[in-house]
Design a protein that fits this description.
Distance between the termini: 56 Å
Number of strands: 9
Protein name: DUF676 domain-containing protein
Subcellular location: Endoplasmic reticulum; Membrane; Mitochondrion
Oligomer: single chain
Number of helices: 5
Keywords: Endoplasmic reticulum, Membrane, Mitochondrion
Organism: Fusarium torreyae
Main location: endoplasmic reticulum
Strand content: 15-25%
Length: 216
């Protein structure tokens, strides 16, 4: 039975411009055979670092180097080749914390930021994935419907709100605001469209409060 677990891959060198190139890079870095090579679904410039790219992908069978019941992030060294920086590594994760870009257009062709925030106990990508399948609405359909939007999904630990943690909606809203400032140039006029599910809507409301206060 195929694995539909989604991985995020960060730190991809800019010279890898196509999903096929990223597939080959991952296969080489993880020493995978042709039957175990990944399917790369999205590839975009990283929102917080314009010097690398971020991809989402899955494997027919999860590679041994990406297994571990308690792990959600793995740092993998890239093959030491002449066309790669010495000591370059990439990061795989399944937690999808922070922003993940899903658009297909270049950043220069995007006229708005469309930011999706999941709900209580949700997952930035998994909450929008079909059961027992690979289709993810945010990644596989929305960018086609709004081709000139920079589609970003935002991951955070929503379970902390119901735990004994001192983290509150205000804290989550403040964290989202700070993360948002980190991916947008100061004074940038590109509008932001938020989509929030359940608790995500309340977090977005907190962000609106902080933004309103900062402008007064």
């Amino acid at each position: 039975m195929p694995s539909y677990l989604n991985f995020r891959l960060r730190g991809i060198p800019l010279e890898y411009e196509t999903r096929a190139q990223v597939r080959d890079l991952v296969s080489k870095a993880l020493e995978l055979g042709p039957s175990a090579s990944p399917t790369v679904y999205s590839l975009a410039i990283s929102p917080g670092d314009q010097n690398n790219r971020t991809a989402t992908l899955s494997f027919p069978i999860i590679p041994d180097r990406l297994k571990g019941h308690s792990k959600t992030e793995w740092v993998i060294d890239l093959p030491n080749e002449d066309d790669l920086d010495f000591g370059k590594s990439v990061v795989f994760d399944t937690h999808f914390a922070g922003f993940t870009p899903l658009q297909r257009a270049s950043d220069h062709d995007c006229h708005a930021d469309l930011i999706v925030v999941c709900g209580l106990g949700g997952h930035a990508l998994g909450s929008f994935k079909e059961k027992a399948g690979r289709f993810v609405w945010l990644r596989d359909a929305l960018p086609l419907e709004v081709p000139h939007a920079r589609v970003l999904t935002y991951g955070y630990n929503s379970e902390l709100v119901q735990s004994s943690s001192f983290q509150s909606l205000t804290d989550l809203g403040r964290a989202l605001q700070l993360d948002l400032e980190g991916i947008r140039d100061r004074g940038q006029q590109r509008p932001i469209v938020f989509i929030g599910h359940s608790l995500g809507g309340l977090v977005i409301k907190e962000v609106g409060f902080f933004l309103a206060v900062s402008r007064t």
